[in-house]
Design a protein that fits this description.
Blueprint (H helix, E strand, L loop, with lengths): L2 H4 L5 H26 L13 H16 L2 H13 L14 E4 L16 E4 L1 H9 L13 H4 L3 E4 L10 E4 L7 H13 L2 H24 L5 H19 L4 H11 L7
Antiparallel strand pairs: 1-2, 3-4
Length: 259
């Protein structure tokens, strides 16, 4: 834990409590970092902490990291590390820092920079109401970006806009990785957020196809367009993005969809 988070706390009782707990905080932060580097942060055992520890660490995060001048510059540096888009959903801009292992689950990791992940407001909010599972970190769980796991399906070809998105298990995913992945997917509510985006994508797509052929388009042309877009999204964004999965699903069911 950085010294500037503790220095100059005016509330003596709080300062003494935090200083008395500092060794524990440092030990747990170090344990988290080494787990994170080995990709095993998901296996950290949940513990219970006293109400005072929860309150003090919440206070430390809000008052010394988010709201203090020195802390805020660290907060903003971490925010910028995530790049332009939220690294959790890739939908919106990152405007918040999300605790990869939530404060409510592990308060002593509240101000550990490696536990702070840039996130959009929706992801942060969804994860707050989620089950607080040990979750994926976009920094350390690189396998989640490299392995293919996101799949979309068309349950009813009469409503091809209503896609269902879900993680799919492949042989390369261990039990632990699969558990983190499904917990992450559910906690961030990615499935229904992607479904909404696909609805907004489908109708203009069908309208454009119809207008370019002056009516229902020939199926071979539809397939060619869908395949081309699927490959373009896959090459540009990778496998695990809703656009890639959506165009693949529409391509695979193109012949039973009323265009
Ligand atoms: Zn997000």
């Amino acid at each position: 834990m950085r010294a500037e988070f503790v220095a100059g706390i005016r509330d003596n009782a709080r300062r003494d409590r935090i200083i008395a707990d500092e060794d524990n905080i440092v030990v747990e932060e170090a344990a988290f970092r080494s787990h994170a580097l080995w990709g095993t942060a998901g296996s950290l055992t949940p513990k219970s902490f006293s109400k005072t520890i929860h309150e003090d660490m919440e206070w430390l995060y809000n008052q010394r990291l988010v709201k203090s001048v020195k802390g805020r510059s660290i907060w903003e540096r971490i925010l910028k590390l995530g790049g332009e888009k939220c690294p959790l959903c890739h939908i919106a801009k990152s405007r918040t820092l999300d605790h990869s292992i939530p404060k409510a689950v592990h308060p002593r990791l509240s101000v550990e920079p490696m536990n702070l992940v840039p996130a959009c407001r929706d992801c942060n909010l969804e994860r707050n109401v989620g089950r607080g599972n040990m979750s994926l970190s976009p920094y350390f769980d690189r396998w989640a970006a490299d392995l293919r796991w996101l799949v979309a399906t068309v349950p009813n070809p009469q409503h091809p806009e209503d896609l269902i998105f879900a993680p799919e298990r492949h042989g390369d995913l261990s039990d632990q990785r699969w558990e983190s992945l499904t917990a992450f997917f559910e906690d961030t509510d990615l499935g229904s957020r992607y479904t909404n985006l696909a609805v907004d994508e489908f109708f203009p797509l069908r309208a454009a196809l119809r207008s370019s052929f002056g009516g229902p388009p020939p199926i071979d042309d539809v397939e060619a367009v869908l395949s081309e877009r699927h490959i373009a999204w896959r090459d540009q964004l990778g496998h695990n993005r809703w656009q890639t999965a959506a165009y693949e699903a529409w391509f695979q069911t193109a012949r039973v969809i009323p265009w």
